[in-house]
Amino acid sequence: MSNNIVWHDHHVSKEERSQLKQQQPCILWFTGLSGSGKSTVANAVEAKLHALGRHTYLLDGDNIRRGLNAKLGFSDDDRIENIRRIGEVSKLFVDAGLIVLSAFISPFQDDRDRVRALVNDNEFIEVFIDTPLEVCESRDPKGLYKKARNGDIPDFTGISSPYEAPVNAEIHVKNSELSIDECADLVIIYLKNNGYV
Amino acid sequence: MSNNIVWHDHHVSKEERSQLKQQQPCILWFTGLSGSGKSTVANAVEAKLHALGRHTYLLDGDNIRRGLNAKLGFSDDDRIENIRRIGEVSKLFVDAGLIVLSAFISPFQDDRDRVRALVNDNEFIEVFIDTPLEVCESRDPKGLYKKARNGDIPDFTGISSPYEAPVNAEIHVKNSELSIDECADLVIIYLKNNGYV
């Protein structure tokens, strides 16, 4: 930070932007192993919210790793910076009044807690997509686990890099025991039960 | 970019998110010297759009330099990375269906053109807040120009770092000859004239 910055007050507030959308903005933070179903469930949740007339946006590897974080790799340092930036961008979307769905492996508890700390208490909803490693590995839609087992991909979460399961997730989804639709409903019901939509 | 990424198709499209908001999303990119009135005019434009029921978000030093780009300074390299990230985030907001107002000095033509190239032809609207250096320097609300003249702030645009005036701005605002309200109206009229709102 330098000293040649002048801070301005914003004229249109977060509350006004949220009110226009008639919703309580928040981050739905989907965490889980590669192949656990994070993006699939997040997409299904977004589709249901959109059908309800809610204003949403989905952040995942598709739009983040191709753009904002294209230069970051998968070392521990880069993973930390990756999640930090995604957290900051998610916060901007909450400030804009949207329900933002962020679907990233985000293997480290500290990183997730840092994102949680960026926003108000009720604005961060951690969704643990809890799928056993064996199931993820057996799905292996693009053969990534196979490559990781062969040592072709370094720092692969669950194989050669740790995954720290959430200790305080608001929503716990046992993906391998439910349909995609049921997984998504679990999130929608939480949002309705807690006054978000 | 690594090879351990699986791309997913997004279920809710940009068109659907825009349709819900009944607007044509775009980036309003405000560029100009420090003290030119970028943030002031952008805030006035956002207030007018909000009053019209439009879905907006404002990116400026306040929410970007404090968060996403807090670790970046004002060297040429950091300025380039600063604008690159802001461009990528602006693109995400357009994808979300919003009208995003980005107010940054953004002194280099190449950087602005790179942001322009990130989105579709009609989605980038460059707004040149054209205020003479002497006027900006005489305003100097926080004494930044004075510090820059004294050498206390290095790389200060207009003094010790170049400002490249836009060569292809869609909207040219001579801030020192108009009221804030007139400056904002110029932008609103452009948006109406061109079918954005």
Give an overview of the whole structure.
- The first copy, chain A, is of the alpha/beta class.
- Chain A has a single domain (29-193), classed as P-loop containing nucleotide triphosphate hydrolases (Rossmann fold), CATH 3.40.50.300.
- Helices cover 44% and strands 13% of the residues of chain A.
- The first copy, chain A, has 8 helices and 5 strands.
- Chain A has helices at residues 14-21, 38-51, 61-68, 76-95, 109-118, 133-139, 144-149, 180-193, and strands at 26-31, 56-60, 99-103, 124-129, 171-173.
- In chain A, strands 2-3-1-4-5 form a 5-stranded parallel sheet, sandwiched between helices.
- In chain A, helix 4 (76-95) runs parallel beside helix 5.
- The longest helix of chain A is centred in the middle third of the chain and has 20 residues, at 76-95.
- The first copy, chain A, is globular and about 55 Å long.
- The mean pLDDT of chain A is 93.
- Chains A and B meet through helix 1, helix 2, strand 2, helix 3 and helix 4 of A and helix 1, helix 2, strand 2, helix 3 and helix 4 of B.
Brief account:
The first copy, chain A, has helices spanning 14-21, 38-51, 61-68, 76-95, 109-118, 133-139, 144-149, 180-193, and strands at 26-31, 56-60, 99-103, 124-129, 171-173. Chain A is of the alpha/beta class and 197 residues long. Chains A and B meet through α1, α2, β2, α3 and α4 of A and α1, α2, β2, α3 and α4 of B.
Q: How is the main sheet of chain A built?
A: 5 strands, parallel
Helix content of chain A: 40-55%
What is the tally of beta strands of chain A? Answer: 5
Shape of chain A: globular
How large is the count of helical segments of chain A? 8
Oligomer: homodimer
CATH homolog superfamily of chain A? P-loop containing nucleotide triphosphate hydrolases
User: Span between N and C termini of chain A?
Assistant: 38 Å
CATH architecture call of chain A: 3-Layer(aba) Sandwich
Radius of gyration of chain A: 17 Å
CATH class of chain A: Alpha Beta
